[in-house]
Amino acid sequence: MEKKYLTVKEKLKDSILSGTYKIHDKLPTETELIEKFNVSRYTVRRAVGELEDEHFIYRIQGGGMFVQDWHKNWTPAKERKIIGIITTHIADYIFPNIISGIDRVISEKGYSLLISNTHNNHDKERKSLISMLDSRVAALIIEPTQSALENPNMDLYHEIEANEIPTIFINAVYPNLKFPAITTDDKVAEKKLIEFLFGLGHESILGIFQVDDIQGIHRMNGFVEAYQSRPEISFKSNLIIYQSGEPLANILAKMDLYLKLADRPTAIACYNDQLAIEVMDHLKSKQVHIPGDVSVVGFDDYQMSRFINPSLTTVSHQKEKMGEDAGKMVLALLAKEKVSSIEYEASLVKRHSAKPVAKS
């Protein structure tokens, strides 16, 4: 019985926190909840009673149950020397270096880290934000989730603003918020990378970009701008776009179709090094020689990219420095100092996965 009432309680609570039921929305009746969850009246009443005690629900005599304004005073607790970090993927090859850089800086001032990840999913981002706010963290460092898409969690970000919680963004920003940010000039960097391939004689290049994150949009725009500056070959450009939830097999299948064309691409520019390494493995399994048959380039300068065979031509991402600068920036905000956003200029890292087009 206890397990059933907890299940009902948590599902209702998740629906409230996610915004499925908004503040002051009327909830289903007891009878409707009994039918929905296939439980007894006692189970529903116990679940609803606890939510009422926790100030998620209120009742109107004869009118039913409604969602209470569950937002709290999330002003940072002065005694809590904890800084929250919300990333899209903790295990991603970029973030361990960024987190290490942050920790080196803030630990010297007696702060520790509370880390959460969203798996690039807005629902998980919402839960991460609420968990951080409930913990009364002193400040937040956030990598926006699916930053190229409309974000359903703006109400929480406005709560962060209203509670004056020092907050910075890394890698991307939400355009309607004024928090300082530390980013890379992805568009210019990608344009330089494609121009480098032009210099090697590549005219037909396949770009593969993730477009639910703003970094991917900027990198794709750099790809397009490079071709716009070479109108005589712009018709030879090729693009595959995908979102973070799309299976890798689908992306590789689309790539294979391009490589079967008579005028197939002679180079492939990938959204990041992680994708580039997957692409290279796939090409090797098809007996496609890199860079003899096709050149491959990435983005981010992942540590392993220099050790694979052939080593990967890519663009630098200042991971450790981003972490250190994020730590310094958030400490400055905590000290009530004025800060400015930072945008890094990325540099080209030339290795062995790209070479000049063979002359026919």
From TrEMBL:
Pfam family, one: Peripla_BP_3
Xref: PROSITE patterns: HTH_GNTR
GO molecular function per UniProt: DNA-binding transcription factor activity; transcription cis-regulatory region binding
InterPro entries: AraR_ligand_bind_dom, LacI/GalR-like_sensor, Peripla_BP_I, Tscrpt_reg_HTH_GntR, WH-like_DNA-bd_sf, WH_DNA-bd_sf
Alphabetically ordered keywords of this record: DNA-binding, Transcription, Transcription regulation
CDD domains in UniProt: PBP1_AraR (cd01541), WHTH_GntR (cd07377)
Residue stretches making up the HTH gntR-type domain: 2-70
Superkingdom field: Bacteria
Protein name: AraR protein
